[in-house]
Amino acid sequence: MMRKGLAVSPGVAIGTAYCIQEVFVAADRHVVPKDDVAAELARYRAACEATARDLESLQEKVTAQVGRQTGAIFAVHRAILRDPAFTQRVPHWITTEQLSAAAALKRLLGEYQALFEQAQDEHLRERINDVRDVVIRLSAYVSEALRPESHALPGPLIVIADELLPSQAVTLGQIEVAGIVTERGSQTSHAAIIARSRGIPAVSGVAHILHQVTTGDLVIVDGRHGHVFIHPDEGTLAAYRKLEREYQLLRRQWVAARELPSTTADGTPLELLANVNNAQEANLAQDQGAGGVGLYRTEYLYLTHPALPDEEEQYREYCRVIEASPRHLVTLRTLDIGGDKTVPYLGHQHPEANPFLGWRSIRLSFEHPELFATQLRAVLRAAHHARQLGGELRVLFPMITTVEELRKVRRMLYRAGQQLAERGVEYLPVSCGMMLEVPAAAATLDLLLPLVDFVCVGSNDLVQYLMAADRDNPKVSHLYQPLAPAVLRVLQQSIQICRQAKKPITVCGEMAGQPRAFLVLLGLGLRSFSMSPAFLPSIKQLAQHVTVNQCRAWADHALTLRSARGVRRFLTQCLEELAPELNLLETD
After folding, report:
1. What pLDDT score was predicted for residue 27?
2. Average pLDDT over residues 385-414
């Protein structure tokens, strides 16, 4: 059987399916043997104790950093967890019906949903979100997803999931993952970004794949064309084994290129940096020959942390990333929560109609000034640590839209430094940058530049805002095109304005590591690129094949074309002339 999805990370992988059940997928079919009932009860009770500890810690930290009203959410969750009507049903079903804890939790949530849906009061109906949050926390402790027994499966694994969540992604390093397939997601989803950062072939948007694949099945992932083969026939398997060997050979050749200098064929120096989420990926950036970390996404610490990280926890984590990073050079982006990345302890238990246009990123930080101040103090302390190592930490503010926002963040950063000085804590002032991802900021970039030291273009969000196309909506994916004429024109203008003002500009979105986009960005005048670590060697190799004048001519021609398809076709031809094997890094 062949299924078609969205190609999000190039390459070919063949392996054994390993299905990550998203909270409750197929959990109602799980019945435990009679001899295992006692162990299942013990597992559930341990989950209750761990969840109770999490909620208590969350309530304390959120109350201190965000406010008593938001912290009260977790007082409600703790009350739900203590309610006998809630907690006694699961042990009863485990004992009398031999249900697994996960299956019992699914049944419990279903009963509550049916009950709340009958309520006339809107506020009461919304309480199901609180119940669901508690059940999800419990299920995370009893879930079988990404357990160590995955090592018992033969060969490399193909992870199959509804959507790869950040908390699950962190554990991927513990198992041998050859490929990823998800039911939901896009080229800029968590799964796609994580897959590309590690060079793992991936396909997203394959509807109902979890109902067609079971753990142990043989699966092929074609991350260039978006194809997934389940139980392939001998002919298909033989053809893809050959492609897999060829791809792996090219990967080894590209890795050898990591020692190359970051220059073009005519000697123009480039800054090739890495995007990372944690210290492990910073180490990977070091191994792949990065010149530093151009984007450290700090939100993943919040997304994967069992409770709200305090100043000391953030400081220690930032120091670990700095220590692991090439030359100890790190550009740290402050909390960029919202849109597709939400946490309940920041008020995201109620979904917004338009989350990407709503309460997110710097707007959320302004709403919770003490939360923001906590992060800024940790950043300033980590900057001092970077200096001691001979490196540098810079700070980057996301989703900046107006001059007023920049003035406000600079005042808050200054105040954070004063607070540290009052405590007698060592810190260091930092260079300040802004993410360029809102069209309004691009249109007024000349007004914003005097207030920043550098600019980073977040092409993932910039493209979706310019094209009015939700990057996670498959129905409008044909409009989400980084090489669209509108995007190229805005990038050309932004690069020119920054160069005239002598302010450094970097593209740190996913297009920075795509060979076709690299050619046109270089031609538009960009000299600093930050990308997934796995793409660094191949981009270094590509740079060795081109001159600035070549790319300038290609960019000039690309700007005359009238469609994204035309630009892609033209740049594909250019890439074929230079290094045809690098087309394997592009997705259809």
Report:
1. 44
2. 97
Higher pLDDT, 524 or 149: 524
Q: Which tokens sit at 452?
A: 């920043």
Contact 105, 24 (CB under 8 A): yes
Count of other CB atoms within 10 angstroms of residue 386? 24
Q: Which of 445, 460, 328, 301 is nearest to 390 (CA)?
A: 328
- Tokens matching residue 273: 């940096």
Instruction: Please tell me the distance from the alpha carbon of residue 58 to that of residue 345, in angstroms, as a whole number.
Output: 7
Q: Which two tokens stand for residue 11?
A: 């390459």
Q: Token digits for 351?
A: 């979904």
Domains defined along the chain, listed by start: 2-21+146-252 (3.50.30.10), 27-142 (1.10.274.10), 260-585 (3.20.20.60)
8 Å CB contact between 23 and 101: no
Q: Which two tokens stand for residue 303?
A: 């997304």
d(CA 209, CA 300): 27
The pLDDT, as a whole number, for residue 102 is 83
| Average pLDDT estimate for 363-367 | 88
Contact partners, residue 188, CB within 8 Å, separation at least 6: 460, 471, 472, 509, 510
Among 319, 508, 551, 574, the active-site one is 508
pTM above 0.85, yes or no: no
What does the alpha-carbon distance between residue 99 and residue 285 come to, in Å, rounded to a whole number? 45
Backbone angles phi, psi at 8, to 5 degrees: -120, -20
Q: What order do you get walking across the sheet with 227-230 strand by strand?
A: 2-4, 227-230, 218-222, 12-20, 157-161, 177-182, 202-204, 6-9
Which of 548, 542, 543, 500 shows the shortest CA–CA distance to 523?
Answer: 548
18 touches 213 (CB < 8 A):
no
CA distances from 32 to 28, 140, 525 (A): 11, 18, 62
Retrieve residue 184's tokens. Answer: 């939901």
3-class DSSP state of 236? helix
The percentage of the chain sitting over the pLDDT mark of 90, rounded to a whole number, equals: 48
231 is catalytic: no
Tokens 């001059």 label which residue? Answer: 403
In this structure, which amino acid lies at residue 160? I
Give the tens place of pLDDT for each residue, 157-191: 999 987 776 555 555 655 678 999 988 877 766 66
Going by the DSSP 8-state scheme, the letter that residue 398 receives in this structure is S
CB neighbour list of residue 229: distance below 8 Å, 6 or more residues apart: 1, 2, 3, 219, 220, 222, 236, 240
Name the token pair of 330.
């790190």
Angle between helix 548-558 and 485-500 (nearest 10): 130
Q: Which residue, among 110, 124, 43, has the nearest Cα to 76 in the 3D structure?
A: 124
Is 328 catalytic? The answer is no
Q: Which SS3 state, helix, strand or coil, does residue 44 take? A: helix
Tell me which residue has tokens 């050079």: 329
Q: Which residues contact 309 (CB under 8 A, 6 or more apart)?
A: 301, 302, 317
Whether pLDDT at 326 is above 60: yes
| CA 574 to each of CA 29, 51, 81, 489, 582: distance values in angstroms, whole numbers, following the listed order | 53, 55, 61, 20, 11
Which residues is 227 bridged to in the sheet? 4, 222
| List 190, 227, 328, 385, catalytic entry | 190
Most confident by average pLDDT, 10-14, 193-197, 384-388, 573-577? 384-388
Cα separation, 588 vs 574, in Å, equals 16
Integer Cα distance of 537 and 287 in angstroms: 10
